[in-house]
Amino acid sequence: MSTAPAHASTRDLTQGPIVSTLLVFSLPILAGNVLQSLNGSVNAMWVGKYLGEAALTATANANNIMFLLIGLIFGVGMAATILVAQSMGAKNLVQARTVIGSSATFFGIVSLAIAIIGYPLSRYILQWMGTPALALPLAESYLRVIFLAMPLLYLFAFISAILRGAGDTRTPFIFLLVVVVLDVILNPVLIFGLGPFPRMGITGAATATLVANAISFVAMLLWLYWRKHPLWIGRHELHLFIPQGRIVQALVIKGLPMGAQMVMISLAMLMVMTMVNSYGVETSSAYGAALQLWAYVQMPAMAIGAACSTMAAQNVGAGQWHRVDGTARAGVVGNVLMTGALAALIVGLDRQVLGLFLPAGSEALASARHLNHIAVGSFLFFGVTFVLSGVVRSTGAVMPPLIILGIALWGVRVPVAKLLQPWLGVDAIWWSFPVSSVCAMLMSLAYYRWGRWRQAHMLSQPSEDEETVATPAEVAGTPPAPVCALRQRLPPQTPPTTADTP
């Protein structure tokens, strides 16, 4: 397949000013995170306000399962992003398309397996979660459609991830915007049966998600084909979809620890929620209101961290270690400025913003303000950890960030919150957030400075029958040789010289 020049649809993150490049690259990721949160809020409004509390409970239980499944595969998507980014940094389009082909097959098989297994087991999964009996039939109807939509959700996320790895955050944002707009429009249409559409109730909310993702996914594929994107795999390259063992191995071995971090965070939050619930409805509602705000406070750090991981990976592929360190410094400074400004704004206006999520005159407002003043600053430290972890993972060092997070959450946050309650009461829970976040930041800084992450690798060494060097024509984007004739040409990932260390 003939391809357009790489610069037409991708972004070279190995050149240009680091700070401005990182900022421009991360803004669409941040905007996409905000869009997804707003979309969830709008959907919850339609279901809760017009279908009732049982329906809202049903979607909450089903969405917890969906988020867990997405979290499990999140790390595999990150592994694919890093592999593509390293290949693009090395100017090796052959390797990038090989990674994409193997990864697409892997994602497709996994998503279909989850849909096939999950659909008939929906009721049993919900019962295992303790879904209230009144909401169980509604939740089952909703979750079954979500399982049918899972292949589309996974593949849409996968394509978005590899585009970000190639330096393109604008295209995923545009098609995510299409998903959100369609979802918002289709929700009332399918829930209430407007126009020629049947009234589907809660099933309509899930169907809206399925249809919106299907339309946007197909549109994105057509756009990539029409633009002759450098990473598009044409009909003459279908052999690239045959999975390569070491690529699949990298996706699993490197991806699962990154996905495990999402699961670990979710479990720790459940443990904290259990402790908060023991103090009654007022404290629980105060914490729930604060959580709504914190979802937005952490978005800059998550966007900058994801951008740093991709930008660092491209520079790892190019062997430009000074730019890897420069990316880490720019990411930390950017996080402190953006997260700090947002946290300060929320503290200054906390009476107004927390009041949006609580009934007028609620006694929980004072508790929400109190806990917010203690805990919201922890996201500054969380952001530093997230940025440094993203840079460290760009080489393939995925276990140390997981260990650091495990120690911070289960060795510090949960014990502090639980063991200090006899002396501090509920404040022990709130103080556990900044204490654990500071500990995670210090451990991350220490590992970044003295750890051996610069010597890590994403891919195992190629076998002897893969030791053919790609030609300049292949690197320029002409149809590649068969997979077995490829040689992965990433430069050696040796530690930088002393002058390159921070």
Structure write-up:
With 502 residues, the chain is mostly helical. It has two domains: 1-243 and 466-497, no CATH class; 255-460, no CATH class. Helix content is 75%, strand content 0%. Helix 5 runs parallel beside helix 7 (202-226), helix 10 (299-318) runs antiparallel to helix 11 and helix 13 (364-375) runs parallel beside helix 17. It starts with 5 loop residues before the first helix and ends in a 26-residue tail after the last helix.
E-strand count: 0
Any idea what the radius of gyration is?
23 Å
Number of helices: 18
User: Roughly what is the average pLDDT, rounded to an integer?
Assistant: 84
List keywords for this structure.
globular, 18 helices, mainly alpha, single chain, cell membrane, 0% strand, MATE_fam, transport, 502 residues, transmembrane
What would you say about this model in short?
The chain is mostly helical and 502 residues long.
Helices and strands, with pairings:
Blueprint: H1 6-9, H2 18-51, H3 53-89, H4 93-128, H5 136-165, H6 170-192, H7 202-226, H8 245-277, H9 281-297, H10 299-318, H11 321-348, H12 350-355, H13 364-375, H14 378-393, H15 399-419, H16 421-424, H17 427-450, H18 472-476
